[in-house]
Amino acid sequence: MLESMHHHFRAQLKSRREALEKEIQAKLEDVRGLHAANAVDGGDLATLANERNIDLAETARDNREMAELDAALARLDAGRFGVCSDCGAEIPLARLLAYPPAARCAACQQAHESSTSGI
Prior knowledge:
It is a single chain. The longest helix has 37 residues. The chain contains four helices and no strands. The protein has two domains: 81 residues, DksA, coiled-coil domain (Four Helix Bundle (Hemerythrin (Met), subunit A), Up-down Bundle), CATH 1.20.120.910; 36 residues, no CATH class. By secondary structure, the chain is an all-alpha fold. The two termini are 34 Å apart.
């Protein structure tokens, strides 16, 4: 892949990573704030618990995405960015433009998802 594209993807991955770090920090602060809040009745407690669970689920999703971004940056550093981790084929540029952290070509990703979903 052209060096200029590597610079493009590195900038894009780092930018998304920085945004995710801010989102995660904000969610954790929200969770702390909800935990410290004094609820007046059971309805308030249930609402607070639900909001906390949503924030925690979103943070877990963001952490998974952060790991994908870190792995993509590591592949860039190792010269393996854009190469399918399963079959070794080049990942099409269109796929990388649509989802820069992609570690697999579309066919291998589909096979991976089928095998991990129990289908």
